[in-house]
Amino acid sequence: MNAMEHQLLVFKEVAETKNITLASKRLHISQPSVSIQIKGLEQEYGVRLFERTNKGVVLTRAGEILYDYSTRAINIMQEARELISGLSYDRHRRIKLGATLTIGEYILPHIIGHLDDAHDSLDFSVKIANTQIVAQDVLENRIHLALVEGPVPENPALSIETFWHDELALVVPVGHPWAKRASVTFQEVCNERMITREKGSGTRKVMELALLKGGFEPDRLNVIAELGSTEAIKQAVIEGLGITIISTLTVQQECKHALLKTLPIDGCQLARPLSVLSNNRGGKTDEETLLLNCLRDTERLARILPFEQVEAGDGEL
Fold first, then answer.
1. Which of 14, 74, 94, 98 could be stapled to 127 by a disulfide with Cβ–Cβ 3.0 to 4.6 Å?
2. Reduced to 3 states, what is the DSSP secondary structure of residue 280?
3. Distance (Å, rounded) from C-alpha 145 to C-alpha 158?
4. How big is the CA angle at 198 (ends 131 and 164), to the nearest 5 degrees?
5. Do 166-271 and 3-86 fall under one CATH topology?
6. How many angstroms from the chain centroid is the CA of residue 31?
7. Cβ of 294: how many Cβ atoms within 10 Å?
8. Which CATH code for domain 93-164+274-312?
9. Per-residue pLDDT tens for 65-96?
10. What CATH number was assigned to the domain covering residues 166-271?
11. pTM of the predicted model, to two decimals?
12. In 3D, which of 303, 306, 279 has the Cα closest to residue 292?
C-alpha cells in the first residue's frame, strides 16, 4: 500500500467514525499518527478537511468531496489488487466472506460442501464474527459478502438480501418442569435464570426486538450469563444452569436425543431473516456470483440444508 492510499484510508476512517481517537483504535495506529496523516492531506490540497466540534469532527465541504472520491479510489485499488492477485490462482478460486456464528456453524458448512462438490478448485476463506463486525468488513471491502442473522446496520452502501428464515425459541433442559408444556408466559420466563448470547450478536438483537414488539421488556429477564458460543449456551442449559432463547436449527440434534426441548413464549413471535450482505460500490467475482446464485435458489437451498424447522426465504431485498 503506497503512502497516498494509506492517507486516504486514514481519512476515510476518521470521516466515518467522526472521531480521531476511535479511528486510531480501529486502524491500530496511534492518535498522533492519524492527526499527521490528516494534516498531510490538508497541506496537499490546501484546505481544511474537518471541523472540530464538542462531539468530535465533521467533514467540511472540501472534505465531503474528497471522501466521495477517496472511497471510490480505495475500492478501485482494492479490486485491482484482487484481480491481479487472482492471476496467480488459476487453479484455485477463492471466495472471501464473513458469517455470523450460527450461520457459520450450522448453515455455511452445508453450502460450502455443496459448492465444493459442484465446482472444482473452489476455496473458501471465512471470517466468523458478529453482525456488526462482518457488516463493517463488507463496507470497508475487507470481504465482499457476509451471511448474517437478524437486524442489519442501516447503510446506503449495503445491499441486503434475505436468503432464508430462521426461528428462535425458548429452550429448556428436557427434565425442566416446562418440558411437557405447550407454551409459557413471559412473566414465567422472567422468573427463571436466563443464559443469552453476547450483546451485538444477531440472536441477541432478534430476541430483544421480538420481545419489545410483543410489549415485553427485555431488561426484565434474569440474565445470569452472556456467552459468545451457542455450543457453550446449549451445554449450560443441558447441565441445568438456566434456560435460553436461541435458534431452533442449532438444537435439532439435542431435541432429537431428548436433551433439550423448545417451546414458544405466549404472544411473542421470534422469527428472523438470514441475509447476505454485499457492498453496492464493489463488483463481484465469478466465484462470489456462484455463491450468490446458490443463496438465491430457495429450492436448491431446501435440498442442501437438512433443517426441518426453518423456512426458505422469498429472496426479496
1. 98
2. coil
3. 10
4. 40
5. no
6. 28
7. 16
8. 3.40.190.10
9. 999 988 888 878 777 766 666 555 444 467 88
10. 3.40.190.10
11. 0.61
12. 279
